[in-house]
Design brief:
The complex is a heterotrimer. In chain A, 36% of the residues lie in helices and 17% in strands. Chain A is α/β, with parallel strands linked by helices. In chain A, a hairpin with a 6-residue loop joins strand 15 and strand 16. In chain A, helix 2 packs across helix 5 and helix 5 packs across helix 8. The N and C termini of chain A lie far apart (92 Å). Chain B is built from 5 helices and 4 strands. The longest helix of chain B is centred in the N-terminal third of the chain and has 29 residues. Chain B is rod-shaped. By secondary structure, chain C is mostly helical. Chain C folds into 2 domains: 164 residues, no CATH class; 147 residues, no CATH class. Chain C has a two-stranded antiparallel sheet with strand order 1-2. In chain C, helix 1 runs parallel beside helix 4, helix 13 runs parallel beside helix 16 and helix 16 runs antiparallel to helix 17. The chains are: A alpha/beta, B mainly alpha, C mainly alpha. Chains in contact: A-B, A-C. Chains A and C meet through helix 7, strand 15, strand 16, helix 10 and helix 11 of A and helix 1 of C. The structure holds iron/sulfur cluster (5 copies). The site of one iron/sulfur cluster (SF4) has 16 residues of chain A, from helix 11 and helix 12.
């Protein structure tokens, strides 16, 4: 049953999963306050629909959106909106407008939260609509709204729903914990998503280093008796869980460069997202909480916690026994792609699957790294899961050679950080590539703006010229009319 | 080595040189760009701010002047050193610093009209080379920030000095870090 | 609490250039022991002069180029160059030739191109090739190894190595103690129209499985090389390709004409074969980039070495083979770009 990895390379890493995965999921008591960032990690924000001072109950809509890349937000606890202001957040740029809600300790639930009577009776379109309204977004780390993905899958007639339970990144194990404790939810959600995506089959892919999750999901699938619902055990290789790489491992088809998995006939969803869909279908509850791994040498008791979205990270860390030793970095995500956060006051986002509190024990090698010139050893190329030549990309990035960057495929870089990880010269390759991508974007935007300006200028000049000609003609007209013919011999010519 | 061999060697080398020379000359004549397309290519490297700081009435006239050899490549302050470098590469000339006589590089800015003070005289409208100002006589005027090039040409005509340049609003270039789950 | 916000990834494997270089030096140790046991302590003398010269030359070059010398000296790459050169030159070489070769290797082979990572040629082989062309007599005079029957003792070898190192005239006192290498002797013998079996029957050229003396060094280098491959410091592509490129043609040629063509075993265990395959050709800086490119690159080295050994004017063509293939690297890289995921080939 086990498939081979079929993407270019990858590497088996030290997973560090046992730290957090030994214990059952901890249910966090409702925090005193939550900080809901309007931008939940996709770079696009929702718009608040409540004002400061408004009373909210559990599940009250507090921010809505029409943007396909943003997701609606609901109050995860009953209480009062105490602030809507820019604060530190776990998003690109480090700041976002946040809605701050102080809890009143009650468990009042919004009237709008009622069980979905019959999810099976809803059409795929209605389903997607309801999922969007429930604020359901990818819980695997990207935070991308599920409904948007479903729509693109239906547009491209994707036939396969691929449920991503790979969880390949070191330190993170919230999906593993969820699959072990709520496999039936995962499977129920998978079936709903399959219908919403218009797919005919569903494959749940789990890495082979999670035998307990595999057993639980196998059992849940068995209880369903659905031939078009299967489990695929895949090798534990980083970055197996990256969308494109996973699609290739499971289906053997490559996602075209610059395309979406749906172009290869697949729509990917995370197992935790499926579980959230099941929660919504059974209780009508919008996305109010998620399971997050709190781990690293910097916390006392690494564990998985189910916590309301917006819970300040400090509260999560307190639930894990508090800080230990000298925490140096607070990382949202795992050790390979996680984003280091400036403070523990930021709120949990939908996209945040892990809070990794790193001490020198965890990241010492990186801290002590001294960059040397590239020795062209090729180690980076031999691990790159996108089949790139990072050493040459790096040369192009340093020279800011945009054409070379494009030809060498900087856009195909999935930012997995493996090249960086193996480079004996300790060059921060992944970050250089992120930078290069940003510069390419900027250059493209500037070029676009210049092209627009040129065009508008040409129109402007033409208009001025036409106006001038028209004025001239009008002037000549007047002259002809006021002068007597024959007055001026040169005038007869026209 | 006999003299014959030496003579042969010299002859072969000479023949080779002549052939290659002719071939290169022919190739050069084939790829000589015509003047128009050269103007296009120079224009493509100019920032299209249309500010006239180069003392030409816009980027394209300046491009034509460069192509005709009438102007040096160091007169465009909005483009800055990067544009001079790109021009130098295109024209195969040594890069040179920007000529300060034409102004210095400035941070990217866009115009902003203080709508409280605007009297709706509409004098700024024709001044804008890219029609980035909207408004009608006796109405309040507004700059479309996304289209404004920051050329400052709208400042002098305004009788009440209600136009000012402000830093470009945060670009919505959001580079999203994709994640391996 | 405030935290630092450095970019991902937050962990690295920690295989740094200095560690890699140290492992390479470690893997050379078995070959070094064999070398000293069979050819006397000349290698140690050459190593010391090469290392000192290399460090000095590196420091001087960095000074000239206005760089900070300390990190570059600590990265250890220049020591690897010194070691490889010292292993390649005869242990009897006068110290000033060793020093000259090393200085040329570091300056001409590395720094004129811009230092670590920039050199298109393997620096050690640049130094070696210059010495070989300029001083052919000195560069082909080796001690007769200990495993050739005779009445020599290791202490005598040691004294001779020291004398040679100081530049004394060896012919006067140690006439019977020096000679050509096995490959050289075979080439000369074949030139005098002896057949290969006749030459091998003499017993002073080759033993049971390879050249006298060199067989053991090659075996030790093979062991060290396999260690590097097992630690993944060297990937298998280049060594396998080099050996394939050398041994397959020699196997065929030997099958066709056993009278003059050296068989694969003899090829594999004489001269600098294993050193080249595992330590010299695998220098990443001057090798091809992609795995596929490295197969071509290695095969080219093996094949050229075989051609030079068979028809060329030098007994062991490894150095020239490496330099020639270094020259071909941009070409190989151009045509072996791996296919990017998601793109049409
Ligand atoms: S970060 Fe990009 S270039 Fe580096 S290994 Fe990953 S995909 Fe390849
Ligand atoms: S791993 Fe580092 S040193 Fe090696 S080729 Fe890649 S960038 Fe260069
Ligand atoms: S100075 Fe530059 S931007 Fe301004 S008009 Fe001249 S070429 Fe265009
Ligand atoms: S609005 Fe003013 S500054 Fe902006 S482009 Fe028009 S004239 Fe120039
Ligand atoms: S010139 Fe000044 S006052 Fe007149 S319309 Fe423009 S902004 Fe308003």
């Amino acid at each position: 049953m086990a498939a081979r990895s079929r993407f270019p390379a990858g590497l088996a890493l030290d997973t560090h999963k046992q730290q957090a995965c030994g214990t059952p999921i901890v249910e966090l008591a409702l925090p005193a306050q939550v900080v809901l960032a309007l931008d939940q990690g996709t770079g696009y924000g929702a718009e608040p629909v409540v004002a400061v001072g408004a009373a909210v109950a559990m599940g009250t809509l507090v921010a809505r959106t029409d943007h396909p890349f943003a997701s609606a937000l609901h109050a995860p606890l009953a209480g009062t909106v105490v602030a809507i202001e820019t604060r530190a957040a776990a998003v690109a740029g480090g700041r976002s407008v946040c809605i701050v809600i102080a809890g009143d300790g009650s468990d009042r639930v919004d009237d709008g939260v009622t069980p979905v009577p019959d999810a099976d009776a809803l059409s795929p379109d209605e389903l997607a609509q309801r999922l969007r309204a429930a604020g359901i977004a990818g819980l695997g780390g990207a935070g991308f709204p599920t409904a948007t993905k479903l729509a693109s899958a239906r547009d491209r007639r994707a036939q396969t729903l691929l449920l991503n339970g790979a969880e390949c990144e070191p330190w993170i194990c919230c999906d593993d914990a969820l699959m072990r404790s709520a496999a039936d939810d995962v499977v129920l959600g998978a079936l709903i998503l399959r219908r919403a995506a218009g797919a005919v089959r569903c494959v749940i892919a789990i890495e082979d280093d999670k035998p307990a999750a595999i057993a639980a999901v196998t059992g849940a699938i068995g209880r369903r008796r659905d031939d078009a619902l299967t489990l695929e055990v895949i090798p534990a290789v980083y970055p197996q869980g990256a969308e494109r790489q996973l699609v290739t491992t499971v289906t053997g088809v490559e996602v075209p460069s610059g395309g979406l998995p749906a172009d290869a006939g697949v729509i990917c969803q995370n197992v935790a997202t499926a579980a959230a869909v099941a929660r919504w279908a059974t209780s009508g509850e919008p996305l109010l909480s998620r399971v997050v791994t709190v781990t690293g040498s910097g916390v006392e008791r690494p564990c998985n916690v189910r916590a309301p979205i917006g819970t300040p990270l400090a509260a999560l860390i307190a639930a894990s026994g508090g800080y230990r030793g000298t925490p140096l970095r607070l990382i949202a995500g795992g050790s390979m792609t996680g984003r280091a956060l400036p403070s523990d006051e930021v709120g949990l986002t939908k996209a945040m699957n892990c809070v990794f509190v790193a001490t020198r024990d965890d990241i010492g090698a990186r801290l002590g790294a001294v960059e040397l010139p590239c020795i062209r050893c090729g180690d980076c190329a031999s691990v790159c899961p996108a089949g790139l030549l990072p050493q040459q990309l790096h040369r192009a990035a340093l020279a800011d050679a945009h054409d070379a960057l494009r030809d060498l495929g900087v856009r195909d870089c999935i930012d997995c950080g493996l090249c960086d990880y193996v480079c004996p010269s300790q060059i921060p390759l992944a970050d250089r590539f992120r930078d290069a991508k940003r510069r390419l974007d900027e250059a493209a935007a500037t070029a676009q703006k210049a092209a627009d300006a040129r065009q508008r200028h040409e129109l402007h000049m033409r208009r001025l010229q036409e106006a001038a000609t028209a004025e001239h003609r009008a002037f000549e007209d007047v002259r002809r009319r006021v002068r007597q013919p024959g007055d001026d011999p040169t005038d007869g010519a026209d | 080595m006999s003299t014959d061999a030496v003579v042969m060697a010299v002859l072969v080398a000479a023949a080779l040189a002549v052939t290659l020379g002719v071939a290169l000359g022919w190739a050069a004549s084939r790829i000589e760009p015509d003047a128009d397309s050269l103007v296009e290519r120079i224009d493509a490297l100019l920032p299209q701010t249309q500010c006239g700081q180069c003392r030409y009435p816009g980027c394209r006239p300046y491009a034509a002047a460069i192509a005709a050899g009438a102007a040096e490549i160091d007169r465009c302050p909005p483009g800055g050193a990067a544009t001079v470098r790109a021009l130098a590469a295109l024209l195969d000339r040594p890069p040179r610093p920007l000529d300060p006589a034409f102004g210095g590089p400035k941070p990217a800015r866009v115009a902003w009209i203080d709508e409280e003070r605007c009297i709706g005289c509409a004098r700024c409208l024709p001044a804008c080379p890219v029609d980035a100002i909207v408004g009608a006589p006796r109405q309040m005027h507004t700059v479309i920030a996304a289209q404004c090039t920051g050329c400052e040409l709208c400042l002098p005509p305004c009788p009440v000095d209600c136009i000012e340049l402000r830093p470009v609003p945060a670009v919505s270039l959001r580079y999203r870090q994709p994640r391996a789950a | 609490m405030r935290f630092d916000t450095s970019p991902a990834p937050h962990v690295i494997a920690g295989y740094t250039v200095p560690r890699v270089m140290f492992q390479v030096l470690l893997a050379l140790a078995p070959a070094g022991i064999a070398h000293v046991a069979l050819f006397g302590p000349g290698l140690l003398l050459q190593l010391s002069v090469a290392c000192v010269t290399a460090l000095l030359a590196e420091a001087a070059a960095l000074r000239w180029r206005g760089r900070d010398a300390a990190p570059a000296l600590r990265d250890g790459s220049v020591l690897v160059t010194a070691f490889l050169l010292a292993f390649s030159i005869p242990p009897l070489l006068p110290w000033w030739l060793g020093a000259l070769g090393t200085a040329l290797a570091v300056l001409l082979g590395k720094h004129v191109f811009g230092g670590l990572g920039q050199n298109p040629f393997n620096p050690a082989m640049v130094g070696y090739a210059i010495l070989l062309v300029a001083f052919p007599a000195e560069m082909t005079r080796w001690p007769v190894p200990m495993d050739v029957d005779g009445t020599r003792t290791w202490s005598e070898l040691a004294r001779m190595s020291f004398a040679g190192f100081c530049g004394a005239d060896l012919a006067a006192r140690w006439d019977g103690y020096t000679g050509a290498t096995a490959l050289d002797s075979i080439r000369n013998g074949l030139g005098l129209r002896y057949t290969l079996p006749e030459l091998l029957a003499r017993g002073d050229i080759a033993g049971t499985f390879g050249a006298r003396g060199f067989a053991w060094i090659n075996l030790a280098a093979l062991a060290g090389g396999l260690y590097l491959v097992s630690r993944r410091i060297v990937r298998w592509h280049i060594p396998v390709a080099v050996l394939g490129g050398l041994l397959v043609p020699s196997f065929i040629a030997h099958g066709l004409d056993p009278g003059i063509a050296l068989g694969p075993t003899l090829q594999a265990f004489s001269g600098a074969t294993m050193l080249t395959a595992f330590f010299i050709a695998t220098d990443p800086v001057s090798a091809a980039t992609s795995d596929r490119g490295r197969l071509w690159y290695g095969a080219g080295i093996g094949l050229i070495a075989w051609i030079i050994r068979t028809w060329g004017g030098y007994p062991d063509g490894c150095a020239f083979a490496v330099l020639l293939m270094n020259l071909a690297v941009p070409f190989i890289d151009r045509y072996t770009v791996p296919r990017i995921y998601g793109r049409q080939p």
